[in-house]
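From the thread on structure requests for the teaching lab: each student submitted one protein with a one-line request. Submission from student K.M.:

"Model Aldo/keto reductase from Arthrobacter cheniae, C-alpha cells only."
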Amino acid sequence: MQRRNVGASGLTVSALGLGTMNWGQEVSEEGAREQLRLFADAGGTLVETAARYGEGQAEAMLGGFINDTVARSELVLVVQGGTTRSGSRRLDASRRGMLDSLDASLSLLGTDHADLWLAPSPDPAVPLHETLSALETAYASGRARYVGVSNYAGWEFARAAATASFPLLVNDVEYSLVNRGIERDVLPAATAFGAAILAWGPLGRGVLTGKYRGRIPSESRGASDVWAPYVEPYLAGKPQRITEALCTASRGLDLQPHELALRWLLHRPGVASAIIGARTLQQLKEILQTSSAPVAEPISQVLDEVSALMA
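Reply posted by the TA:
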C-alpha cells in the first residue's frame, strides 16, 4: 500500500486507514482481530480509534491485538481525545477532560504514546487556549508524537493553528465525492499551515459503493432505525446523480464504484489518508484491493464536474 507524508512533517501513513468505530458494536472481537491482521498484511499502518467507539471497547480490543496480532512499531495510532466512554456528555475538550482521556486511552491501548492525538470537535464550553494547552502538554511530554484536530471549520482551524506554539498536523474531516464542502475553506486553511486532511466517510457513508441504487438493502445501515438518518442525506438529489455518474464511469473502466471513488479522493490535494470503517471482513478485502493509481484525466474531469460545489 502506498505510504504518504502527512502535511509538512516526516510522519508517513498508509493511503488507506483503518477506522475502528464499528468495533464492539457491529464488529466482534474476533472480527476486529481479523480486520487488523488483513489490514496490516496489505501494508496498512494508520489505525484510528476513540474513547467513544463502542464505549471504550474498540480501544480495549485494539490494545489486546497490539504486539499479539501486529507489532506496535508497525502501526501509526491515531487517537481522538476529549470524548467520554459513557454518560450523557460525550464531548469534553477541557484540559482535564483531554488529558484524562489520553491517559485512559494509552492505558487501554497498552502503549506509552499516540502517534497522532486529535482534539475533538470544538467544545463551546471550553476556551480554545485551554484545549490547545492540553495538546501542547501531550506533545511536549511525548505522550503524543504529533497532534491535530477533528471536524474544525476552516476559520476554526486557522485560528487554532495561528494561536498554537506547536504544529497542528491534521484536520480529520468528512470528505468524499458526495461531500466536497471542505474545499471551500477547510482544505485551504490546512494547506496554508502545512497540515493535511484525514478523510473520514470517503465512500459517502456507504452510498458510493452503489449498493443503495434503487433500493435500501435490508442488511445495510440505511435500513437501520439508528443509522438511517446518517445515510439518508446522500440518497437523493445531487448525491444520487453523483453516484449514478460514478457507477457509469466505473463500469466503463471495469472497476467497482468504491475503487473509483477512493482513487479520485486519494489524489485530491492535501489528503494524507482515507479512513475506512468496514463492518465485515469481505468489505475490507474489497476496499484493500483499490489501486493507488490516479484516475484518467477525462474520467476525473467528469467526476469533478458532476460533484462540483455550488457557487
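TA comment: The longest strand covers residues 144-150. The chain has one domain: 3-204+263-295.
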